[in-house]
Amino acid sequence: MKRTIEIPSDKRASVAGFATTFARRIWAWVSAEVLRSAACRSGLAATEFALTLPIMLLMFFGLVEGGDALNASRRATVAANSLADLAAQSEELDETDVQNLFTGVETMLAPADNAGVEFRLMSVVLDPDISAPVIDWSVDNAGAEPYAREAPYNGLDDASILEEGASLIVVELVYEHKASLARRVFDDVIVFKRTSSRWPRLATTTVRFCANKPCL
Q1: Are 194 and 80 within 8 A, CB to CB?
Q2: Strands 132-140 and 117-127
Q3: What is the pLDDT of residues 47-61, one digit of tens each?
Q4: Are 206 and 167 in contact (CB under 8 A)?
Q5: Average pLDDT across the chain, whole number
Q6: pLDDT confidence of 20, banded at 50, 70, 90?
Q7: How far is residue 58's CA from residue 67's CA, in Å, rounded to a whole number?
Q8: pLDDT at site 161
Q9: Would you call 188 helix, strand, or coil by DSSP?
């Protein structure tokens, strides 16, 4: 049906009155067309909604879980860097010091389930006999020794940075991230692996580790 909008013929009509009348008639026409379309296509609209709802939900939850995973990745990186930096600020560490470091850094991963977190803290030195990096000492957050003393270490991107008589603090982190929403349906986890290293921050060239301080 063709619709026309009449312009007031009264020359005394104000510009504001004309604009108001014009806007009202436009709004009335738009409203009528929308309501008529909705009445005529209600079944089609319901079908379209039913078809698009799963896709929209998938996109929504995908964005939520994707953002959660990115945040978990950032937390893992910060935790590994912080642990390496804190350990490098000491001249010597004992078992209590190291466990306190692990406990403090684990809080950076909150609200994650720390049962899926593994920290490995170690000191890597250069073996002059083989001109390759080896383990000086290592400990993990379970209190075990993940690498044997003097075992070759291949985790450095550039082994040439090591100098004889100096040590490099290295942290390896393995973090199993479980999706906050999807884990109610799926058991899959995302595993983040991070490696961070720091030179000793004090005047000493090595950081020593022993059961109880002072280290002999």
Answers
A1: yes
A2: antiparallel
A3: 665 677 677 777 777
A4: yes
A5: 76
A6: very low
A7: 14
A8: 85
A9: coil
